[in-house]
Design goal:
The complex is a heterodimer of chains A (396) and B (364). Chain A is mainly alpha-helical and 396 residues long. In chain A, 69% of the residues lie in helices and 5% in strands. In chain A, strands 1-2-7 form a 3-stranded antiparallel β-sheet. Chain A has a two-stranded antiparallel sheet with strand order 3-4. Chain A has a two-stranded antiparallel sheet with strand order 5-6. In chain A, β1 (169-171) and β2 form a beta hairpin. In chain A, α4 (84-116) packs across α9 (263-290), α7 runs antiparallel to α8 (220-238) and α9 packs across α11. The radius of gyration of chain A is 29 Å and the shape is globular. The two termini of chain A are 47 Å apart. By secondary structure, chain B is mostly helical. Chain B is globular. The chains are: A mainly alpha (396), B mainly alpha (364). The interface between A and B is large, with 56 and 56 residues.
Chain lengths: 396, 364
């Protein structure tokens, strides 16, 4: 390696080759890849031999077999006579259910607390920071187990259920809340809502085009919001404005009517929301602080209205900082929902675990839930890459 | 930044009372709306404090006997008194409890010493390896006349600390290798590192632990088995290394290209360039996210309860199912929540301190 060597006239060609950069790089790669390949082959061949000696058939044929275990809550029809494939589908849907509601709630609370931590009021700032520090420094699994224990052991039975708000009952059987009574109108109202969103988006596109062409400003935000709410309202009125409420009432030893959130679901949702809220609050705080004060000052001196400054100057810049870590937190919440297995909520991992224990198909079971999570994570990160590219194009 | 803020500070005048009054007027009552918020905050804090204090202090029973708890309406701290050994040591044989105490002292003092920049040298790594071997033999026994204790009997806070400290010590170098591999110009190595990083970041830790506990035995030839604690530890290390690798890579990407080119033009080879030029600058940039990955690792050790290891959380879970103490589950969970909180909060404070300290020492 020392320079003296290379100055000698009788350089050994093998030595030159050994110090050649390309040759070395290829050698390293062959060595590492060979090592990884050999390790993979070794593990797979061992697994095959072990499975054969234990008489476990490989493959996903077991998905067709009868599951023969019950699942306590499900969004689709399921009974122990259904097959393993359907059981896993129930698990996936349960995971998505708790993750989407958790993401929705954590975003709202996280934004509120994030704004509180940049408030001018010292006490409000203190409360925000205290909340964040407390809940993010305690493991989420401990929080889940704690809330589950509180609901399961700490809350009274059905007959003495807590009744904090009219119609809402909290007992060790879970949370009962009133919902709107079944009526075909609600389906059409939801359809009207979707239609309203599409209409508002078309309006936005049209008004931006007109702005580019003529310079006339059309208040597409307020009119668009109006459309989003007016269309479903109109549909609701057309269907005779149904107002009937389905409230839970105590009958015998349990509640009838209303919507029920099981203790497992309530504890999982509560724990995940409280924990992820702290991270989202931090994301929102850093996003707000990332926009220099000069930006809004410059906009003010240009004569922009204060509502426009927020919408056109501050928010787009803050969102560029906020959205990537925010999606990361959404993914984290989804992945953390797998901790449901510890408190018995039938999510994907919990159902796979039961399946693995019953069939012995450990490799396939783990492969299935890893694939599902990987699909979710990778598709979100592809979306993020696309989004980042789009945002950086806007920049210059 | 700090100098600007210092200049803005007005010369302080007046008595303490008038100064604090001015502070309150600026920070709490600057406008009617602000005053309403302040009053609302006081109301909320008062309510929360009242619940917590009356439960934990005013109505609580602090005696060591269970009988005193029967009359107290609040917390029963006798429970912690009765259970703390179980929570700290799990099912470790009672006569040998001094050994986990020594192991915990070694691990925490090792962590504390490593936090001091004066000790940062290659010798620290050697000291850690020797230290880990010592901790292993203190806990496992089998030499110097110590009774052998199987790893399945290790438990409680001891196990949590072992998992966390060993995890941090091994995840960091592995993460460094992965990050360098991902930035390497050799396509095959790059691809392997990307796959490892993205797969482990894409799945929950639980699935990695399940793989370690359920699937891994199938990977090994018949008759060979690896201790479940070691398998879980390896799972935790690889999982967190994948996250940490992305943190390190972020730091390396932030280093200007000129630094790499300058190192090349000085004739430094790859390892000299990496360890003398790039990493000292890159790692300094990513101290906060690195420490928060370490904090995650510490918190995530609690997940081993799901594959049946007996860490602090698992011990507590077993303790609250004791039929003699059916009512005291909240005390148990609050107690260990405080333990976890103290460790994590301390780590995050240290992260802030180190970040500021390094900025100070390099800014002039």
């Amino acid at each position: 390696m020392s320079p003296k060597h290379s100055k000698k006239s009788d350089v050994n060609p093998v030595v030159t080759l050994l110090y050649d950069k390309t040759f070395r790089s290829i050698m390293y790669q062959i060595l590492v890849f060979g090592g990884v390949f050999f390790l993979g082959w070794y593990l797979v061949s061992n697994t095959m031999a072990n499975l054969e000696s234990q008489n476990i058939a490989t493959g996903f044929g077991f998905l067709e077999r009868e599951a023969a275990f019950g699942i306590s809550e499900s969004t689709i029809e399921y009974s122990p006579e259904s097959n393993y494939g359907r059981a896993l589908l129930v698990g996936i849907l349960n995971t998505l259910k708790v993750a989407s509601i958790g993401i929705f709630l954590a975003t709202i609370f996280g934004t509120i607390i994030g704004i509180a931590t940049v408030s001018k009021n010292w006490l409000l700032r203190f409360m925000g920071v205290a909340y964040i520090e407390t809940f993010r420094n305690i493991p989420v699994l401990l929080q889940l187990i704690f809330w589950y224990a509180v609901i399961n052991r700490g809350l009274p039975g059905v007959r003495q259920a807590l009744n904090p708000v009219e119609g809402v009952f909290l007992s060790n059987r879970g949370l009962y809340i009133p919902v709107m009574a079944d009526n075909p109108a609600w389906f059409w109202v939801a359809g009207g809502f979707v239609l309203g969103i599409i209409g508002a988006l078309i309006l936005r596109k049209w008004s931006l085009k007109r702005l580019e062409a003529t310079g006339h400003i059309f208040p597409h935000l307020s009119v668009g919001l109006g459309i989003v709410f007016a269309v479903p309202l109109l549909v609701w009125l057309v269907f005779g404005a149904p107002m009937e409420i389905n409230a839970p009432t105590l009958q015998g030893f349990n509640f009838r009517g209303g919507a029920r959130m099981s203790p497992e679901f309530t504890a999982l949702l509560l724990g995940l929301t409280l924990y992820t809220t702290t991270y989202i609050a931090e994301v929102v705080r850093s996003g707000i602080q990332s926009v220099p004060k000069g930006q809004s000052e410059a906009a003010t001196s240009l004569g922009l209205r204060s509502s426009w400054i927020m919408r056109l100057i501050v928010l787009p810049q803050a969102l560029r900082v906020i959205i990537p870590p925010l999606t990361n937190q959404y993914l984290n919440l989804t992945k953390n929902s797998s901790l449901a297995v510890a408190i018995g909520y039938p999510d994907l991992v919990s159902v796979s675990n039961t399946t693995m224990n019953q069939t012995g198909q450990a490799v396939e079971g783990v492969a299935i839930f890893m694939t599902v999570y990987l699909t979710i994570s990778l598709s979100v990160s592809f979306f993020m890459n696309w989004y980042n590219k789009r945002m950086s194009l806007v920049e210059r | 930044m700090t100098t600007v803020a210092n200049q803005r500070v007005q010369p302080v005048s007046g008595t303490t009372a008038s100064r604090s009054w001015r502070w309150m007027r600026e920070n709490l009552f600057s406008s009617p709306f602000n005053t309403i918020i302040t009053l609302f905050c006081i109301f909320v804090i008062w309510n929360i404090l009242e619940v917590i204090l009356s439960w934990a202090v005013i109505n609580a029973s602090f005696g060591a006997s269970k009988e005193a708890c029967e009359v107290a309406a609040g917390a029963c701290w006798a429970y912690v008194h009765a259970m703390y050994r179980f929570l700290l040591f799990g099912t470790y044989p009672a006569a040998e409890h001094w050994r986990p105490v020594i192991a915990m002292i070694m691990l925490t003092s090792g962590m504390l010493l490593s936090m001091n920049r004066r000790f940062w040298s290659p010798w620290l790594a050697v000291a850690w390896i020797v230290g880990f071997i010592a901790v292993y033999f203190v806990l496992a026994g089998g030499i110097l006349g110590l009774t052998p204790v199987r790893t399945s009997q290790w438990g409680g806070l001891t196990l949590t600390l072992v998992l966390a400290v060993v995890g941090i010590a091994f995840a960091a170098p592995l993460a460094l290798l992965l990050a360098l591999g991902r930035r390497s110009e050799m396509p095959l190595i790059k691809v392997i590192c990307i796959v490892v990083i993205e797969v482990f970041r894409g799945v929950p830790l639980i699935s990695v632990l399940f793989m370690a506990s359920v699937m891994f035995p199938l990977f090994l030839p018949t008759g060979v088995s690896i201790d479940v604690l070691l398998r879980a530890q390896i799972g935790i290390i690889i999982f967190q290394a994948a996250y940490l690798a992305e943190v390190f890579r972020g730091g390396m990407q932030a280093i200007p290209k000129g630094q790499y080119e300058a190192a090349d033009s000085l004739g430094l080879n790859y390892w000299q360039k990496t360890f003398k030029i790039i990493l000292p600058q890159a790692l300094r940039l990513v101290i906060p996210p690195t420490m928060s990955t370490f904090i995650s690792l510490f918190k995530d050790t609690s997940l081993v309860v799901i594959i049946g290891l007996f860490d602090l959380l698992a011990a507590t879970r077993a303790a609250v199912n004791d039929p003699a103490w059916r009512q005291e589950f909240i005390e148990a969970y609050v107690f260990i929540a405080i333990i976890y909180f103290c460790f994590c909060f301390f780590m995050s404070r240290y992260s802030n301190y180190l970040d500021n300290d390094l900025k100070k020492s390099t800014s002039h």
